[in-house]
Amino acid sequence: MRIILSKSSQYVCLALAAATLFQSSARSQTNTPAPAANRGFAHDVCLWVEDTAIRPKQPFELVPGKDANGWAFVIEPYGWSPGLYGKVGVGRLPVGNANLSPIDILKTLNWGAFLRGEVRKGRWGVLADGFYAKFSTSGNPQDSLYKSLSAESQQSMVSLALAYRVLSDKRFYGDIYAGGRFNYLGASVSGQVNRQGVEELSQRLINTAAVRFAPGLLAKYPGLQSIPASTWQNAKAAAVRELSDRIEEKLPTSAASDCWWIDPIIGLRGQVNFTRWLFAAGQADVGGFGVGSQITWNMQATLGVNFSRNIALETGYRYMYIDYDRDNLLYNVNMPGIFTGLIFKF
Fold this sequence. Notes:
The protein is α+β, with helices and mostly antiparallel strands. Helix content is 27%, strand content 50%. It has helices at 7-30, 41-54, 102-108, 195-220, 229-250; strands at residues 71-82, 84-90, 96-100, 109-121, 124-139, 146-168, 172-193, 254-273, 278-287, 295-306, 311-326, 329-345. A 10-stranded antiparallel β-barrel has the order 1-4-5-6-7-8-9-10-11-12. The longest helix has 26 residues, at 195-220. The chain is elongated and about 115 Å long.
């Protein structure tokens, strides 16, 4: 972070710095402190800017004022509003393309809870992150046999990992961590059959059968050629209705799936303190490896502000990718969105 001062402010600061050096030299010779009256407002402002922004002498630590080898705790309630892009399929119902923006997700969100936590002692720590959300939505599927689909889903994730601090300084830190992420996904889908689409399918099937078998039947039974065309049309219409009824009877109109799995994860995270007040943090992990999901990614980057030694606010961007295809559930989605958290350190 760069602090740009106007030329006049720079001249004032330089002049005050020179005066301060001269006064310090004079005090070192006479051992008498400079009178407080000689310190002006501009002098105090320049010292404050230098101490807190340009060259902070005491940047905030993860838990300021604590023994580096003592216990430290962090709790962070947060909000994350991701979009949902990808493919979702439940049971024998057709796979649907999810294309929901963060605004769309907020409209379908019934309620949710999000919380992160950390316990640390020295270089070792335990990280936890979890959320639960319930959604409901409806839409038009690509499959012409269904007029509409409506779905309700519940999603929960809880991550638990052991972290080790490989880089430690007041200005920055870096951790490596490994653990597991518990995933729960419950979904129920109901669909409305599209009668027109079913009849179109039946008509295509009967036309295909007629083209394939009619020449052989006419050759074997020449008398069929004397049947009026209107009779053939009526018979065809009756066959389409009967076949459509049977297809509609066999089409599923509802499905439900309830499953959970655990993904092993490994990752990195870190934080850089630009000043006592401003910091940037980042985190990334990968997991799954075919144990639960085929692959899963989780990445986050934020900027934060320390309001005090124990309270901070961070906001940024979080992205998650999940590729899961088991137990009659296909969940191949990207979830990018804005992240905001309120941090309590003690």
